[in-house]
Amino acid sequence: MPDLLIELFSEEIPARMQRRAAEDLKKLVTDGLVEAGLTYAAAASFSTPRRLTLAIEDMLAASPRQVEERKGPRADAPEKAIEGFLRGAGLTRDQLEERDTPKGAILFAKIEKPGRPAAEIVAEVLEQTIRNFPWPKSMRWGAGTLKWVRPLHSILCITSDEAGASVVPLEVDGIQSGDTTRGHRFLAPDTIAVSGFEDYEAKLKRAFVVLDAEARAETIRNDAENAAFAQGLEVVADAGLLAEVAGLVEWPVVLMGPIGDAFLDLPPEVLQTSMREHQKFFSVRNPKTGRIEKFITVANRTTADEGATILAGNEKVLSARLSDAKFFWENDLRIAKSGAGMETWVENLRNVTFHNKLGTQAELIDRMAVLAREIAPMVGADPDEAEQAARVAKADLSSEMVYEFPELQGLMGSYYARAAGLSDAVADAAREHYSPLGPSDDVPTAPASVAVALAEKIDKLTGFWAIDEKPTGSKDPFALRRAALGVIRILVENDLGIGLISALRQSYEGLLSSLLDAKKAYILDGEDNDSEFWSLGSEVMMNDGQFVRRNYDEIVRAIAEGEISLSKSLEGDNIRAIPASTVCEDLLSFLHDRLKVYLKDQGIRHDIIDACIAMDGNDDLTLLVKRARALSETLKTDDGGNLIQGFKRANNILTQAEEADGVEYSYGADVKYAETDEERAVFAALDTAEAKIKPAMQAQDFSAAMTAMAELRGPIDAFFDAVQVNSDNGMVRRNRLNLLSRIRQTCSSVADLTKIEG
Amino acid sequence: MKKNQNAPRSFQAIILALQNYWATQGCAILQPYDMEVGAGTFHPATTLRSLGAQPWAAAYVQPSRRPTDGRYGENPNRLQHYYQYQVLIKPSPPNLQDLYLGSLDAIGIDMELHDIRFVEDDWESPTLGAWGLGWEVWCDGMEVSQFTYFQQVGGHDCTPVSGELTYGLERLAMYVLGVDHVMDMPFNDPDAMIPLTYADVFKQTEEEYARWNFDTANTDVLLRQFEEAEAHCKVILDQPAMDPKTGKRIIMVHPAYDQCIKASHMFNLLDARGVISVTERQAYIGRVRALAKMCADAFVQTRAGGWQGDAA
After folding, report:
1. pLDDT confidence band for A561 (50 / 70 / 90)
2. Where in chain A is the domain with CATH 1.10.730.10?
3. What fold is seen in the domain A617-755?
4. How many CB atoms lie under 10 A from the CB of residue A529?
5. Which residue has the higher pLDDT, A5 or A475?
6. CATH code (residue B294)
7. Fold held by A3-62+117-206
8. Which CATH number characterizes residue B104's domain?
9. Do residues B32 and B151 share a domain?
10. Could you read off the pLDDT of B45-96 as tens digits, one per residue?
């Protein structure tokens, strides 16, 4: 069976798109082939900066013949109907088969589709693939209409078997398929004819093209590590950069050069970022000092001078780049160490918009400082230190270094805070307060960092909730889900119990007062929304036209309680004031949803979380998670699972009886009315369990409470096996129902078990 | 940098080599546009001529001004006034990359010793309502040119597509000549009767303009001029196509586009004076883009823009 080789040769494909494009080429072509009946044994795709390649092994030489049976009209149907059927099937009357069926004699047609040669199918599939290729961005060129990521120059498409290779003829927008490609742009630019994949790969290699991106990456990694090792140094691993660089070269040549002495004192992160972002260089570190002393660049060719010219050029460019970085660093340090210090930057941020409805970065910082101070005692931080840390945390946004390298935000702040003589806790908070950025990112643990990180995220959540910019579907432009997950992880992973409703409320009220101060919001009194009733700041126009002066506290409280609305902002966009209670509850429920996702990843089912959310104090996420974990663990045990069944049975009987009798059985079960041993055993078991559960609940030891509860399983099962609750004796029945009520109450101490599914 | 016999020794030698090279390749060598622009792209030979179906091939030097980049001539490679070399060919020929590489060779970059790379860089000009895909071209890690296939200009699809090459001449020349500070670069031949450096020609003007751009330019005047240019551009394009005096169909695209260029430059000056806030910035850019779009709409109604209404 023949092999198929396809190569789409173009001008340089962006590195970040190559891998995906190779996969798409494979998927689109193989899907098309299989759909047309051409199966194959194996397929592999490859990419270089200038080509996408697909190699398919052992493909059918032709698609199999297909026979389709089509049911037609009755044999005695009108001629017209039969003619129509014949036309549709492309047959004549004598080719139809007449079959007796329960519905009479029916005509059947057998339509044979002959197999088609592979080349025909490949040509069709490849043309479709090229015309509909899912590039993230594509373009036209010259006078053509075809779209490709960059101009497409040639299409190699051949099938090959023992007898030899042949070109699959096709033409796309004037480009004729052939059996040739080209080697390296500079080292082997001529055309190369190939006869199959092995030949192709080998000839490319002789023409200075390593086809496989993984192989190029491996060469780069190896050569770089060896070069560094030979001088007692090590390469700073960077998988993303490695993949990118492997997509920028067809013939990787690793070159290592020095970083000028003048730049060695720059923070290593600055060196690394500058080299990676601007020059795509790897950093080479001295393991003894931890300093970055050299760089590695990957050239796309060999030269007669063994890369000397290339390396010299790269060194020069790096030197210019690092001169800039050094200039920024020194300017920034000068400001950080000056009298006003980082406060200078905070003042500059008064002119930088955070969001046009939520004020400036400086106003954000003011709010964070207040909130961090309020949160501090709850997380064991010093309020003064937390407030100071919050004021400093985002100051570096106006530093020159962060303007140049936004990804260094926070980190530069910590360098500058130390230089300004601020405490380590404050400096660390600057670096850590953005964390966690992703699900695998570490959460801050130092109290001041925790306070600032929480303040930052809570302010963000309440702010965007206040202006009704909540995430919807896949849209979350302000990364609010990430902020919510951050809040969750910081609290839970640090075992911090905080009543979030109160924190959210403080944040929301702080936001409103900040918006009023900044004249981003105005006060509207009463129910009338007409624009004439807009009034500014604390001067409130009442419905009778009187101005009433209220102080901010009053206004904020009134807004929070929904008495008056906050409305109207820049550019006439209205902010409908939402009462604090609504915002807080809505946000809490958003946090609960994110918590479900977070816990689901840890194997805790959503109904378990629902059962815990139903309990009081559900705005303390740490407590909530403890409940959920204990319940989840218990449910995994045999006793636990059965306890739920027993509980549900008790609950059902009780609920039905309460509905039927119109009373609530909640108190007064007495062992002296027990008639059977099984009943008495439940009383005894409840006494024992409750004695354990009560102290466990006080200690928030939900595992112990659940374990004690699970011990009820045996007596409850035995009770239901032996005892008929609905006794004829009214007093006995009442006593039993009250006993069930006690079971329900005891079993509901940790979570609302009625929410558990199954 | 290896020096060969014919390697250029001055800034102007590099410009002349490029002029020669692109002339040899068949481009019309145009002269700079006689107005203040932020980049060579603003020259009507690029913005307007990239529209419509008429073939085009032009190359030119364009003095460009970016008031915010002024550093009083002290920064080794930042200037508020600098030169771009611009090539525009429509439709983009299939061998444009090779033609481009030939131009590097022509200015003395030895292809055997250097590492030339095409690194993804998409181009977008919010003020011109234009975008394209292409690369920045690296020579040994140094960005030496911008290479773009225009997809849209002034909101119009480019059919056919123009290939645009932009060389930052000072930076490229500093690299070729091995100079570390732009002011040290020989402007004419170092052995000339009167050798002149870049500093001899431009150091004083950089100082003067930096002071004026940052501190002295009268923002009220600039703002008024911006608004006048904006209004004027619209008035020009509002005129009927038929010229009552000659009886000919004359759409005054270029005069209107001059006002668009002027508005754009006034905006750049206002920006350098720091009087435009972040939110206003977008609004100003939008206003210039609206002018560019009107000019593009008008240009495609002219013969140079592919209008064939009078052929029939």
Report:
1. low
2. 617-755
3. Isoleucyl-tRNA Synthetase; Domain 1 (1.10.730)
4. 13
5. A5
6. 1.20.58.180
7. Alpha-Beta Plaits (3.30.70)
8. 3.30.930.10
9. yes
10. 999 999 999 999 999 999 999 998 888 998 888 899 999 999 999 999 999 9
Using the Cβ of B111 and the Cβ atoms of chain A, whether some distance falls under 8 Å is answered with yes
Q: Which CATH class is domain A343-521+569-581?
A: mainly alpha
The tokens describing A255, both together, are 């070159």
Encoded amino acid at A245, one letter: V
Residue predicted with more confidence, A552 or A599:
A599
Cβ–Cβ < 8 Å for A498, A506: no
User: How do strand A152-161 and strand A3-10 relate by DSSP bridges?
Assistant: antiparallel
Among candidate residues A44, A47, A55, A43, the one with its CA nearest the CA of residue A17: A47
| CATH 1.10.3210-classified regions of chain A | 343-521+569-581
Residue A487 to residue A570: CA distance in whole angstroms:
30
For an interface test with A, the pick among B109, B110, B120, B164 (most A C-beta atoms closer than 10 Å) comes out as B120
pLDDT at A567 (0 to 100): 47
On whether any CB of chain A is under 8 Å from the CB of B119, the answer is yes
B192 interface with A at CB cutoff 8 Å: no
A-chain residues near B139 (CB < 8 A): 313
What residues have CB less than 8 Å from A612, skipping those under 6 apart? A618, A624, A627, A628, A631, A750, A751, A752
Q: Determine whether the interchain pair A353/B278 forms a contact, defined as Cβ–Cβ distance below 8 Å.
A: yes
Let me know: does A295 contact A275? Beta carbons within 8 Å: yes
Residues B168 and B27 in one domain: yes
Tokens coding A502: 């109160």
Distance from CA of B93 to the nearest CA of A (A): 6
The answer to whether A317 contacts B161, with C-beta atoms less than 8 Å apart, is: no
Contact B151 A151 (CB under 8 A): no
Does any domain span residue B87? Answer: yes
Q: Where are the beta strands (DSSP E) in A58-142?
A: 66-74, 97-101, 104-113
Domain-embedded: residue B308: no
Minimal-distance CA residue of chain B relative to A296 = B141
Q: Which residue of B has its CA nearest to A151?
A: B94
Same domain, yes or no: B65 and B45? yes
d(CA A621, CA A627): 10
Q: Is the dihedral of CA A210, A213, A219, A224 positive or negative?
A: positive
Domain count, chain B: 2
Q: Which phi and psi angles does A298 have, rounded to 5°? A: -115, 110
Local structure of B103: helix, strand or coil = helix
Number of neighbours of residue A602 by Cβ within 10 angstroms: 10
Average pLDDT over residues A538-557: 51
Alpha helices by DSSP H, chain B: 11-24, 44-47, 96-106, 169-177, 198-211, 219-238, 253-272, 278-299
The verdict on A66 touching B (C-beta cutoff 8 Å) is: no
- B118 and B170, same domain (yes or no): yes
State which residues form the domain around B275.
Answer: 218-299
